[in-house]
Amino acid sequence: MALPKKEQFSEWYSELMKEAELVDLRYGVKGFIVIRPWAMYILKKMYSYYEEILEQYNHMPVHFPVVIPERYLTKEKEHIKGFEGEVFWITRAGFNELEERLALRPTSETAMYPMYALWTSGRKDLPIKLYMSELVWRYETKATRPLIRGREFWWIEAHCAFATKEEAEAQVREDMLTAKKAIWETFGVPFLFFKRPEWDKFAGADYTFAADTLMPDGRVLQIATTHLLGQNFSRPFEFKFMDTDGKEKYAWQTSYGPGMNRILAAMISWFGDDKGLILPFHLAPVQVVIVPIFKDESKKKVLGYAKEVEGKLKALGYRVELDDAEDETPGFKFNKWELKGVPIRVEVGPKEAEAKALTVVRRDNREKQQLSLEEAAKIEEIAKLMFEEMRKKNEEKMRSSIVDAKNWDELKKGIEEGKIGG
RNA sequence: GGGGCUGUGGUGUAGCCUGGUUAGCAUGCGGGCUUUGGGAGCCUGUGACCCCGGUUCAAAUCCGGGCAGCCCCA
Predict the structure, then answer these.
(1) How far is the CA of A261 from the C1' of B17 (A)?
(2) pTM listed for this prediction
(3) CATH code of the domain in which A50 resides
(4) Distance from residue A192 (CA) to nucleotide B43 (C1'), in Å?
(5) For residue A25, what are the contacts with CB-CB under 8 A and spacing of at least 6?
(6) Pair A197, A328 in one domain
(7) Which nucleotide does the CA of A325 lie closest to, via C1'?
């Protein structure tokens, strides 16, 4: 890795995808990529934090099938109009043509709501708050970018239903709140929610709020959306309930979709530097890497001590890698693990072994500090401080990128400077 | 959606324009020696022209199509 992130962001991003072993683009089908273990681990961690937050707000997990029969998908007119150009269809199975085409879900409203209708008879059956952490498929015709725009992508979709419009609108606000807790507070990615104009709202929604973050080159990336669906879906899907006034009414619905692929891409882009990734401690597959440094005469002692350190750090619950490969020099290892974004490096050499000490190095600024082995638990404090400092920097950068344009010229100038409207 | 570019061992590349040798180099990987406070070194082995078609005595090289990827602009 030798590319400058700021000046050549696109190349930096592409190279990092490969060099840090995040994804493999050689699968050979446009828009479909292999997500390698290092990235998949991070993605799964992000999912688990996000899911925990959703569950704190009374969502429950659910699974709906990957395939949506054509009769469901086409039921809501605006919705299918918006998606028909990007649906993958299954038309054959084995030796048979299917009687009814099956869509690979591009989003799951039309898969879920027929069931919601079956599950609901009275007001006591509402609200429904379900989410799923799964894949969707869209036939993108634009250029694809790893984790940013693919034909297959990972997201969470949360679908809620209520008896009243007020509750549904409150849900849209709650979605924006949980997005803030996860994406900003937990993952450190700054963003702003904007109400989308009519032409850019979700197909079938009354209105849409979408979260945009900024990439280092000034481009915006939409990383989450939440929609007030109103009764637009409940009507065609006959999703009704008996209200307390004895009248049958259609449910009020919302749908919410944080794009986990893109949030990961944004996190990588906000936190990385010219040497590679920088991972938040709580998301990193390896949180601490131990690099032993020795000469022939000190080898046995240093490696023995390095194992002791490894045991101590593992006992503290950290995800630890002892990199004791003997055919790589320490300098090589430093660069390798910096590229991969491991937040904390512990160097142990003859001096540390003698003093039962640790040299702890922060990934972001390479600041070193000495700890005694007994103080090893301070590593987590150092790592948390590092994350908070970086998050703060991100916040400042985001703030300085917001311009309040009062006229067309100011707007144009702001856009040219890579800023975002506020 | 528009424009530009690329595809050669696992990776990065030379060769392509001007068709013809055993497809060169670096790195990685296996083995051996040696080496460790910021990408060490020597020896040895291994491994490649994206796919289909065309032109030609002859194609990595020229032409057409496909697939895949990169960059820029909307």
Answers:
(1) 43
(2) 0.96
(3) 3.30.930.10
(4) 60
(5) A17, A18, A33, A34, A146
(6) no
(7) B36
* C-alpha distances out from residue A107 to A127, A178, A183, Å: 21, 20, 21
Residue pair A261/A154 in contact by the 8 Å Cβ criterion: yes
Residue A268, SS3? helix
Q: Which nucleotide does the CA of A336 lie closest to, via C1'? A: B39
Residue range(s) defining the domain that contains residue A213: 9-271
Residue A399 lies in a domain: no
Query: Domain check: are A130 and A245 in the same one?
Result: yes
Nearest protein residue to nucleotide B36 (CA to C1' distance) is: A329
pLDDT digits (tens, 9 = 90+) for A192-251: 999 999 999 999 999 999 999 999 999 999 999 999 999 999 999 999 999 999 999 999
| Residue A357 counted as domain residue | yes
* Cα distance between residue A382 and residue A260, in whole Å: 27
Q: How many domains does chain A have?
A: 2
Coil/strand/helix, residue A233 = coil
Contact A137, A152 (CB under 8 A): yes
